[in-house]
Amino acid sequence: DVKVTQSSRYLVKRTGEKVFLECVQDMDHENMFWYRQDPGLGLRLIYFSYDVKMKEKGDIPEGYSVSREKKERFSLILESASTNQTSMYLCASRDRASYNEQFFGPGTRLTVL
Amino acid sequence: GDSVTQMEGPVTLSEEAFLTINCTYTATGYPSLFWYVQYPGEGLQLLLKATKADDKGSNKGFEATYRKETTSFHLEKGSVQVSDSAVYFCALRGYSTLTFGKGTMLLVSP
After folding, report:
1. Best mutation site among A5, A96, A104 for testing chain B: the one with the most B CBs within 10 Å?
2. What is the pLDDT of residues A45-72, one digit of tens each?
3. Exposed e or buried b per residue across A70-79, where buried means at least 16 C-beta atoms within 10 angstroms of its C-beta
4. Sign (positive/negative) of CA torsion A62, A42, B75, B39?
5. What's the gap in Å between the CA of B8 and the closest CA on chain A?
6. Rounded to 5 degrees, what angle do the CA atoms B2, B5, B8 make?
7. Is A85 helix (H, G, I), strand (E, B) or coil?
């Protein structure tokens, strides 16, 4: 079974802090994704990565950056957290084949005070 | 750009009722279509998919048919259970990424 794990289920940070959200997958998938999920807005893509050291902006990259130094790990970074970044963050991975599904982690609920 | 529109919820049903959750899409070309489900406290998991027109995806009693003429991919189940209570997301795969609808919450009571 594919497993996507995220470093924390719940996280509370203060405005202005630097925040790291970590995601690890164990299926040697090339593609990895970060989404945020908000009520009434569904899932919105923040960043994705086709392979190690590659990254592409999604629909809402502002205020975020990412790092992919190893194939299995994709990190989302909030350089200076703000209250409007309070959200559920979901990581996903997928192999390179065109129609294969994305596998999601359980999510990190981040609260910025 | 690509977009997915699905009916707003919550949808509230009694156990054994018939379920339909509507989903329509806008996309160039012929995207693959998906339904994902999110149970409380969990991430999303793929429920079913269809990759071309007239394909029917099915899983766990749920079905959806890819209708190109109406650009729709409605989710149906003949008899829902309490354990089906979850949020359901319709999605399409464009060139490289998924575009999701806003999700529809389903609440099934005994």
Report:
1. A104
2. 999 999 999 999 999 999 999 999 999 9
3. ebbebbbebe
4. positive
5. 9
6. 155
7. helix
